[in-house]
Amino acid sequence: MHPPRQMSLRRGEPREITRGGSSSFLTVENVHITLWERTGKIAQPYFFQMRDESPFAFAGIWDTWQVGQYSIITSCAIITTTANELLALIHDRMPVILPHETYDTWLSGELETVRDLLTPFPASQMTSHAVSYDVNHPKIDESYLVTPVEPNLGVALTLF
C-alpha cells in the first residue's frame, strides 16, 4: 500500500549530474511523475516541463561513505519543497527546481544562501498534462508517452 499522495519520479532522462561539496543538481529536459490518489489505488502519470522546453535542474545532495573494508557507497537525494500552484492540484510537494542563474550558488553549499533557493518554482514557467499509464513500463520507450491523455482514462473508479 502506498502512503497518501505518494510521488514517484519516472523517465526524466538525466542530461548531467553536477556536484560541488555536498550539493549537486540533476539536469533534465522533462520528467514524468506518477501520483497516487489518497486512496492509494490509482496512479496517474503526469508529464512536466518548462514552458519554453528548456532543460532544468533539481536541487540535490550527495555523499560517499565506506561500509566495511572494501565497499564504497555513493548516494544522492533530490530535495523537495511545497508544491507550486500547478503541482498543488495533484500533490502537496515537488522537487526544488533551480533557476539557471542560481546553479553556482547552490553548488557553493553556503547554508545561509542556499536556504533561500528551497522554494517552489514559479508555476507560470511550467507546463503539465496527464500521460498514458504506459510510461510506468520501462520496456516501452515511444514518443506517444508524452502525448496528453484524459486523467484516469480507462480506470473504473468506485465509491467503496
What would your notes on this structure say?
By secondary structure, the chain is mostly beta strands. The longest helix is centred in the middle third of the chain and has 6 residues, at about 105-110. The protein contains three helices and eleven strands, in the order ββββββββαββααβ.
Question: Key features?
Answer:
single chain; 160 residues; mainly beta; hypothetical protein yedk fold; 5-stranded antiparallel beta sheet; 3 helices; 11 strands; disordered N terminus
Structural shape = globular
| Uncertain regions spanning at least 5 consecutive residues | 1-14
SSE order: EEEEEEEEHEEHHE
- Rounded to the nearest angstrom, the distance between the terminal CA atoms is 16 Å
Secondary structure tally: strands: 11
What's the CATH superfamily, by name?
SOS response associated peptidase-like
Radius of gyration: 17 Å
Output the CATH topology.
hypothetical protein yedk fold
- The percentage helix is under 10%
Main sheet overview = 5 strands, antiparallel
What is the domain total for the residues? 1
Mean pLDDT over all positions: 78
